[in-house]
Amino acid sequence: MLPLEGLGPLLPEHLSELFVGIALFAIIWFVVAKKIVPLFEKTYAERTAAISGGLEKAEAAQREASAALEEYKAQLADARAEAAKIRDDARTQAAELAAEIKQQATDEAARLVETARVQLEAERSAVVRSLRSEIGGLATELAGKIVGESLADDERSRRSVERFLDELESQSAPAK
What we know:
Elements: H1 15-147, H2 155-172
């Protein structure tokens, strides 16, 4: 073989070493290209598929989360609307109850006033009767002292006293 000395430190000493090196490089390159590169490509494809699947799963989870959020917001809006309706109903019921209680109190007050008025009228009538009998008795007794005879048993004296008191009442009634 030809010696290749003096051409540089990187060149082999013999040309045969160069051919052997090229042949071994070609064999190694062929083995790597046919055996190892497909394994790397397969692993790369699996990882790409796993990442794509993970992204799709993440997107699906994101869509589900968005749908759940929208459903939650809708339920929350429904709950708020129902709470507002319940508050309005409670206010309406409270107003109705207040009006009913006020009406009952007004009715009770009117009933108490009417009862008191009737009671006062009855007491007034009783007082008037009592005063009439006392005034009549005193008037009869006074007339008896003036005349000098007892007029207490006489029916006519009682009627006279009644007539006198009625005239007094009729004269005092317009003055009221």
